[in-house]
């Protein structure tokens, strides 16, 4: 009996076909096969908001292959991703192949392992129409918002802009933070740091001014500091109180999509978009030496912290063998998810505990290895014993003034032997205090008063923005990365190192949205809409009703805004660079292929310049900077800044690594290192295969 399994990704198809064997044919849909048309609204607002789906352009060959394989199969199983989007893709495929959506044609799994795949095959189910309806509701709502508001932005500001339920809120959040920073008024304050000497202890003990007679007192200016220094300089610091407490720090839970994106931003400096791309690769499968195409992690779009009993037992066994029984908790660790978390999938974890990061390092690209190690280590740590520390607080009296020292001593490292959590803000490292006794006197070595000023709120990073969106219930795990990418690509926000900074365009669009579409940029309204979509998924409400309740007031707002909003003129952003042709100021412009510099005197002066992004790698020919460029066709490439004197150019991002075979520069191509010399072996994995084949040939020759 032949069976056809349809998945979304060709990579996943390859992995699953290897698992299932010869009686199964596995093909990929390459994501969605049907969607709303781009050329029109595609929603029949007069007839219950029925979506008008069309076959996506470019999917013809894929669909012909699927239909051809379906005719030969005795059974068809739809194995798209286990979420709303995946359920909708299965529903579309069922209609195209004339399958009964109520029949047992749908299978789902959360990790691509033999056990998970075979268990799913044995328990097919009907398509979950509540999940399909939730996806349809989201798609229709997003289409209505985008296609009704975006034309107004084009008319009143400029073409190419867009609005969206989540992206407009995210932009407003970043703009609001920038307004707080701009309105911030700094205040002066002072601190007094003291280094104390204890006989027999080499390191000085650090103490800080606390207050007067045990009560907290601020130091607002230099005069207040002088009054303290007059009393404490050259005086003994007498220990008046020592407090010791033991704290147990529970292990961190395994990753959800949100916490993974936050941690990769902090620790790996990876964008949310890159994180999800690499995680998808790890989930769908990587070619592992000796094992073939292997899925390495569980499904990466989840907000659950739950893990399977089998995975937990495997982790506990590994921990006992690798680190010792004291690192295995007396009772297994369990974690409670957020109140509105969807628990359909497990947390993100390694699919095979036995495949350690070090074992896979040669088979993975740098990004894949770093992300896999992060996921692996976090999961192992989540199943380990508590980290136990002793904290000590020491209070000193100096002629009525109070100073304090704090210290921390590790008693048992527990889960921290494997994992250290990333932090958004710098924190002072706790000192280790020597043994002290009450009434003991210490001599000051150095007293340093320091003037400081209060700081404005920090700008959002991708990590802190994702955290905020999750806390407020805005968007879902699958939307964070595309939302951030969208507001950056539209020019509403730009990255400055790790910070997200709103542009003038972002402020203008947000102001227009706040004045005319208050609900769309209202945090609570957007969060409530997400809750409504969750209710559709659970079968509690009908999706058309959710859309209808939204559309009535919304379309009235759109019609009013279209007739009342006046055109907004955005002044050009000056670059500080003068035009060498006419002396005018060069300003930033947005074009088809990204930002560029143009003379402010256009059309009288048509001088333009590309904006060169320097790559921190020297040119291998002349040693000058390599810069990112665009060809006339809009294709990105990397060339020497010394052009035309130096003609070095490559099509992929240069690195500082050298090819081990020919010594040429290695470049990064789709996450893999390859040699820039086209006549050389293309990748390290291919080089390894070539070496292996050469050794085999030599061995065969020797045997003969």
Strand composition percent: 15-25%
The dominant shape is globular
Tell me roughly what share of residues is in helical segments: 25-40%
Model regions low in confidence, pLDDT < 50 over at least 5 residues: 694-704
Strand order of the largest sheet: 8-9-15-14-11-16
Distance between the termini: 45 Å
The SS-based structural class is alpha+beta
| SS field, number of helical segments | 18
The total count of strands amounts to 29
Summarize the biggest pleated sheet. Answer: 6 strands, antiparallel, barrel
How would you explain this protein's 3D organization?
This protein has 704 residues and is an alpha+beta fold. Helices cover 36% and strands 24% of the residues. The chain has 18 helices and 29 strands. The strands form 9 sheets. It has a 6-stranded antiparallel barrel.
């Amino acid at each position: 009996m032949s069976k056809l399994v349809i998945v979304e990704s060709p990579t996943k198809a390859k992995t699953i076909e290897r698992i299932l064997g010869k009686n199964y044919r596995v093909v990929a849909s390459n994501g969605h096969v049907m969607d709303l048309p781009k050329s029109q609204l595609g929603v029949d607002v007069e007839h219950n908001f029925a979506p008008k789906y069309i076959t996506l352009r470019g999917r013809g060959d894929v669909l012909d292959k699927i239909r051809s394989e379906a005719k030969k199969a005795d059974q068809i199983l739809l194995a798209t991703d286990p979420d709303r989007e995946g359920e909708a893709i299965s529903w579309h495929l069922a209609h195209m192949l004339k399958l009964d959506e109520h029949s047992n044609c749908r299978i789902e799994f959360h990790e691509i392992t033999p056990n998970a795949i075979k268990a799913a095959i044995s328990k097919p189910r009907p398509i979950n129409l509540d999940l399909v309806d939730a996806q349809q509701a989201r798609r229709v709502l997003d289409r209505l918002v985008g296609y009704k508001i975006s034309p107004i932005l084009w008319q009143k500001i400029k073409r190419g802009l867009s609005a969206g339920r989540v992206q407009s809120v995210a932009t407003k959040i970043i703009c609001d933070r920038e307004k707080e920073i701009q309105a911030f008024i700094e205040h002066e304050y002072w601190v007094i740091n003291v280094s104390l000497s204890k006989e027999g202890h080499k390191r000085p003990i650090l103490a800080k001014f606390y207050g007067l007679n045990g009560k907290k007192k601020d130091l607002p200016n230099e005069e207040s500091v002088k009054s303290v220094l007059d009393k404490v300089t050259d005086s003994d610091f007498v220990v008046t109180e020592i407090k010791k407490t033991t704290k147990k720090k529970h292990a961190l839970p395994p990753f959800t999509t949100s916490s993974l994106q936050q941690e990769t931003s902090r620790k790996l400096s990876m964008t949310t978009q890159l994180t999800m791309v690499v995680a998808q690769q790890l989930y769908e499968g990587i070619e592992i030496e000796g094992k073939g195409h292997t899925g390495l992690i569980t499904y990466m779009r989840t907000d659950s912290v739950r893990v399977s009993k089998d995975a937990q037992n495997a982790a506990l066994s590994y921990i006992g063998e690798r680190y010792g029984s004291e690192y295995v908790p007396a009772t297994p660790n369990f974690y409670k998810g957020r109140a509105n978390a969807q628990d359909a999938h497990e947390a993100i974890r390694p699919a095979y505990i036995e495949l350690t990061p070090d074992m896979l390092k040669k088979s993975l690209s740098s990004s894949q290895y770093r992300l896999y190690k992060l996921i692996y280590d976090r999961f192992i740590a989540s199943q380990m014993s508590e980290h136990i520390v002793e904290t000590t607080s020491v209070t000193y009296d100096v002629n009525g003034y109070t100073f304090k020292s704090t210290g921390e001593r590790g008693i048992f490292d527990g889960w921290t032997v494997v994992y250290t959590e990333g932090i958004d803000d710098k924190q002072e490292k706790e000192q280790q205090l020597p043994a002290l006794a009450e009434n003991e006197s210490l001599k000051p070595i150095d007293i340093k008063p320091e003037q400081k000023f209060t700081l404005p709120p920090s700008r959002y990073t991708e990590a802190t923005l994702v955290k905020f969106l999750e806390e407020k219930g805005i968007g879902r795990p699958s939307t964070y990365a595309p939302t951030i990418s969208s507001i950056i690509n539209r020019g509403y926000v730009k990255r400055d190192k790790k910070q997200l900074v709103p542009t003038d365009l972002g402020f203008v669009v947000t102001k227009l949205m706040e004045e005319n579409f208050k609900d769309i940029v209202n945090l609570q309204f957007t969060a409530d809409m997400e809750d409504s979509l969750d209710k559709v998924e659970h079968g509690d409400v009908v999706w058309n009703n959710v859309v209808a309740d939204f559309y009535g007031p919304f379309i009235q707002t759109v019609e009013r805004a279209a007739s009342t909003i006046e055109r907004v003129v955005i002044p050009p952003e000056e670059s500080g660079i003068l035009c060498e042709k006419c002396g005018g100021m060069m300003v930033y412009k947005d074009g088809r292929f990204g930002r560029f510099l143009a003379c402010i005197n256009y059309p009288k002066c048509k001088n333009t310049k590309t904006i060169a992004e320097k790559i921190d790698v020297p040119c291998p020919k002349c040693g000058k900077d390599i810069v990112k460029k665009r060809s006339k066709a809009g294709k990105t490439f990397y060339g020497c800044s010394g052009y035309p004197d130096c003609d070095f150019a490559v099509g992929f991002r240069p690195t500082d690594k050298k090819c081990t075979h020919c010594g040429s520069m290695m470049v990064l191509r789709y996450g893999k290192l390859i040699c820039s010399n086209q006549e050389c072996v293309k990748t390290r994995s291919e080089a390894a295969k070539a070496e292996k084949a050469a050794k085999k040939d030599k061995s065969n020759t020797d045997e003969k």
